[in-house]
Amino acid sequence: MPNQPATIMLTIRNLSKSYGGSKLFEEADLQVNYGERVALVGPNGAGKSTIFRIILGDEESDKGTVERDEWTLTGFLPQESEDVGDYTVIEISTGRAGMIQELDATLRKLEAAGTVDVPEYLEAQGKYDALNDPKVEAKAKKMLRGLGYSESDFDRPAKEMSGGWIMRAHLARLLVIEPDLLMLDEPTNHLDLMSLLWFQDYLKNYSGAILMISHDREFMDELVESVYDIDNHKLLHYKGNYESFVDQRHKNYENRNNAYKNQQKQIKDLQEFANKFRSVSSKASQAQSKLKEIERMEKIEKPMAPKKPFRFQIPEPPRGGQKAITLDGIHQAYGDHKVYEGIDLTIERGERTVLVGPNGSGKSTLLKILAGELEFQQGERKLGHNAKIGYFSQHRSATLDPNASVVSEVMNAAPTLREDEARGILGSFMFRKEEVYKLTKVLSGGEKSRLNLVKFLVDPPNILLMDEPTTHLDILTVESLIMALGNYEGTLVFISHDVRFIKQLATDVIHVNAGNVRRFHGDWQYFLDKSDAGDERGALTAE
Q: Which residues of 326-348 are buried (b: 16+ CB within 10 A; e: fewer)?
């Protein structure tokens, strides 16, 4: 590992970038010091991931410079993983899945060229040494356990596992290397709550610096001490965590807006005096003086208000029966693994219920049973009068036709909807102009989530079942979803690791553990008080 790192690890100066005449950011400055935790925030499409690619040298800027200390070892976790071939989980996490070989080839190439003192060589050497440490496998297994893997998973071919689990193996490898600068692009997207809490605690004690893009407010509040916000093509710096940033941003806007209004009033008064007395000989010189005073002023530009959550109203769904869904004596097993043995549960109309419990306790299985998406071996599932179910799966793409366009997907959900109406609604969800004609198979995770929300909006169910609905959504869209669901007149059952989301919405809590379901008829605070669960995030995984 490199030693004696510089105080400043990374410096960006006057960075600008546009795509096809559309400006992302201009004259952006950013600095990351050794050991600092920094968040890069802004709405989807603002250019956060582009800045990451420029830092990593994968993309060119239009203008500006990126300076990385040559002794700094950088590690990057992208949002999506590459092909894993036939490699096992442990081979990925230890670098034996091709990374060691690639690093060795890079070192040999640079040595042959006589360039052993360049940053590229130093970084490759640092990663090569870390992955050839005799203790690398023990370190990798420790990371894998923390990220939710069991011992039996270590030697499994990674291709048998979901994309989320593959990403965890790549994250484990990154933590094994222990880079001086960790660059993380939405690192919590593929983590369940248990692994997220482990990862969060690990990062609290991490000795290196962290530069992250995240939509998880709680995660950022726990970790970051500095925030850079892409706002109106500018990169603005704030000290403190995310909550502090939001407060500072609001106060800064209020101060700038008041200063602008005061100056405009002053200009108006001076102009009115000049207009009134410029033709009066005794006052003409004073009038001219007022006009010159206006000219000498350093004009304050009208500030743009911080972007706010967009408001959308879920239309009133058809009224259902008092008992929305009833489960009687449900038995569910996967092979020899018994998940539920004879559980009973009733979901009442109008309740907003969150399912919580340890990882692997059966929360998603229960939600699928409620949704009618999973067959069970014994028992009965009864739907209430006029029940209309909407299931918001973790796997958003499964509910979309990959060869359908965005606008046709919405119109198919509500056949009476005209195209101009569908385009108008999609515009509110940041699908603008030609974007509505993109095929759903090319959409990002966040775009798929937003498109599914639009489908619920145009054809609302009266029973809405949602599994991790905030995954891949940016912070403003999450806030918009909270407001919409808060006014939703149907029945809601959901799973989430977002404490803020739960606190704002849940009226009931169901704790799931070891095949048992225990109901708490009250909000999140009521559950905390009655369950003696301790801190808020720990309560989500309490046994």
A: bbeebebeeeeeebbeebebebb
Local confidence pLDDT in tens for the 543 residues of the chain: 444 444 889 999 999 999 877 889 999 999 999 999 999 998 777 889 899 999 998 999 999 999 988 888 999 988 766 777 888 999 999 988 888 888 989 888 888 888 776 778 888 888 888 898 889 999 999 999 999 888 989 999 988 887 778 889 999 999 999 999 999 998 887 787 778 888 999 999 999 999 999 988 889 999 999 999 998 889 999 999 999 999 999 999 999 999 999 999 999 999 999 999 988 888 889 999 999 999 999 999 998 888 888 787 788 899 999 999 999 999 998 888 889 999 999 999 999 999 988 767 888 899 999 999 999 999 999 999 999 999 988 776 677 888 999 999 999 988 888 898 888 888 878 788 888 999 988 887 778 888 888 888 788 899 999 998 888 788 888 888 899 899 999 999 999 888 889 999 999 999 998 888 999 999 988 888 887 655 555 555 555
How far is the C-alpha of 354 from the C-alpha of 373, rounded, in Å?
19
Spell out where 78-233 has E strands.
181-185, 209-213, 226-231
Cα–Cα distance, 40 to 46 (Å, whole number): 11
Q: pTM above 0.85?
A: no
Burial environment of residue 227 by CB neighbours within 10 A (0 to 12, 13 to 18, 19 or more): buried
Residue 492 CB coordination number (10 Å): 25
Separation of alpha carbons 8 and 466, rounded Å? 44
| CA proximity to 535, closest of 201, 149, 240 | 201
Q: Is 486 exposed, middle or buried (0-12, 13-18, 19+ CB in 10 A)?
A: exposed
What is the enclosing helix (H) or strand (E) of 30?
strand 22-33
The 37-41 sheet, strands edge to edge: 74-77, 181-185, 209-213, 37-41, 226-231, 234-239
User: Token digits for 306?
Assistant: 């911080």
Strands 491-495 and 8-19: unpaired
Edge-to-edge, what's the strand order for the sheet holding 8-19?
22-33, 8-19, 63-68
At which residue do the structure tokens 């230890």 appear?
94
Using an 8 Å Cβ cutoff, are 271 and 294 in contact? yes
Rounded to an integer, what is the distance from CA 113 to the centroid of its chain?
42
